[in-house]
Structure formats: C-alpha cells, structure tokens
Design the sequence.
C-alpha cells in the first residue's frame, strides 16, 4: 500500500513556485522570440532540458523502473515525446508570434477540459458525469469566446487567428499526452521526462533546419530567456513536479492548473504591457470555472478537513 499524501507548508510553497514559473513561461517565450526564431527556440530549449534531465537520471543510476515483462514500447516513448514537447513547443512558439503571452497562457487552461472527454473514450473506468459535462460545456464556452473575433485584438497581425488556433492545438497535444502517459507501463519519471525531451529535440531539429536554416547568435536578452526556459521552466520544474507528486500526491498537483493562466495574464499585462480586454478576462473566468466544476471532487478533497 502506498503512503498517504503528506501535504505540508513546503508542499504549498512548491506548488505555488510551479504555478508562478510555468505561468511566467509564456512571457519569457515572448522575450526569447525577440532574438531567436520560433523553431530553433523549441529545439534549443528541449536540448538544454534533455541534457540536464539526463544528468538527474544519471544520479538516479539510469533506472527505468519498468516491469521487465511489460516495458514501454520505443514507439510509444517517441510518440509521448512528440506530443508532450516536440509538436506543442513548435506550435506554441510559432503561435506566440501573433498572440499575446496572456492569451497563450489562458489557452493552456483548457487542457483539463479536453482531457475529460478524451479519457471517457480512451481510458477504462474514466466516465463523464453530469457535473463534468456541465463543467466542460462552461469551459468550452470560454474557449469559444477566447478564439472569437473580439477575444483579443492587441496584435493586429494577419495571422492572429491561426496563432490562436496554434495555441489551442498545444492544449490538445498536452491533453492527449496526459492520456498517453496514463496508458504507458510503469516507468521512472525522470527517465520518461529525459526520453521525451530528447526525442522532442530530435523531432524539432529537422523542422528548424528546413524552415529557418542555421541559427545565428542571439542577443543577450533572448539568450538569457532561452537558458531560463531550458534550465528552469523545463528541467528544474519537471523535477519539482515529481517531488510534489511523490510527497503531496497528483491530486494536489492539479492546483497548478488554476495558477498558470492567471500568472500568464498578470505578468503579460504588468511586465510586457499587454492589454487586458474584458473578453479575455471573461474567457479566463469561464474556463477556470468549468475546470473547477468538472474537477469538484478533487477540489473538495484538497480543502476538506483531514
């Protein structure tokens, strides 16, 4: 029997750090894009993270932690790398050329809403309830508003609509990856993250070369943003995520879902001067409200007196 989750003040600090750092990632991507092309930004970020994660994995003795009789298939691991980092990082970086960081972060709030109907059809024992259907419907009303013509008129770019769609496709990738991870045989989390980051970098590399040619030397500000994305946002926060899940449990980890879009909107507005149209705030409220309703048993357990 696994030990009960131990939620301590340190757990709250860690989950708040995760929410803040991952919420700030969209702002940092905007900064990095001022000097690094979008596809190379994805490749470099993943390569940096893969190298650091490989070091963590080495400290762990390169353990796979799998059932010898049921190891994960290599194709499944490559697929997990593609939809967890390779494809979404390409889409997100490309899309953020045409939308604000606040929009991109708000789009990610839709991930839990997409997971629920996917899990209903793809995961045994996962079924939609009336409550979760209401929550998903409310959340997708927010998504509809988010992509609507007046949802965000800040950039004025000709490709803004497609930038919005690219960000929402990132949310779809993350949701599909969540289902994929559930269906994999048991595997060491550090090993899995390292393999996904490495395969993601290998997937993005040919796209970078074909679409953008050889990279140039980035300016200092963009380079610092790139290092932050690879070292802090990707490698360090993945290790912190594992620590939170192992100590406080995966249910507690869901609190990050509510923080990331809020921080992305606040930081984008305060530090990058991005506008906050009312429709964006309403969309964010509807999406987070839908997530809360659909995940109400989870939220209730977190704050119930133990």
Sequence:
């Amino acid at each position: 029997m696994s030990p009960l989750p131990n939620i301590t003040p340190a757990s709250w600090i860690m989950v708040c750090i995760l929410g803040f750092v991952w919420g700030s990632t969209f702002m940092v991507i905007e900064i990095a894009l001022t000097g690094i092309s979008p596809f190379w930004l994805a490749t470099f970020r993943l390569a940096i993270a893969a190298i650091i994660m490989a070091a963590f994995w080495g400290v762990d003795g390169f353990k796979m932690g799998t059932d010898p009789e049921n190891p994960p298939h290599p194709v499944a691991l490559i697929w997990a790398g593609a939809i967890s980092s390779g494809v979404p990082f390409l889409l997100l970086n490309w899309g953020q050329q045409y939308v604000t960081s606040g929009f991109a972060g708000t789009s990610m709030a839709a991930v839990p809403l997409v997971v629920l109907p996917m899990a209903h059809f793809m995961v045994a024992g996962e079924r939609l309830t009336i409550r979760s259907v209401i929550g998903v419907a409310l959340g997708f009303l927010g998504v509809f508003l988010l992509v609507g013509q007046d949802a965000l008129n800040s950039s004025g770019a000709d490709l803004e609509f497609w930038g919005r769609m690219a960000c929402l496709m990132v949310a779809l990738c993350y949701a599909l990856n969540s289902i994929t991870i559930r269906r994999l045989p048991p595997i060491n989390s550090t090993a899995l993250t390292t393999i996904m980051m490495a395969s993601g970098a290998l997937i993005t590399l040919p796209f970078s070369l074909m679409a953008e040619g050889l990279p140039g030397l980035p300016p200092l500000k963009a380079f610092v943003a790139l290092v932050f994305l690879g070292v802090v946002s990707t490698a360090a926060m993945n290790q912190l995520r594992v620590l939170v899940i192992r100590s406080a449990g995966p249910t507690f980890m869901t609190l990050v879902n509510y923080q990331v879009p809020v921080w992305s909107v606040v930081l984008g507005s305060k530090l990058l001067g991005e506008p906050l149209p009312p429709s964006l705030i309403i969309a964010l409220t509807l999406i987070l409200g839908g997530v809360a309703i659909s995940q109400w048993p989870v939220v209730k357990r977190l704050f119930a007196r133990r």
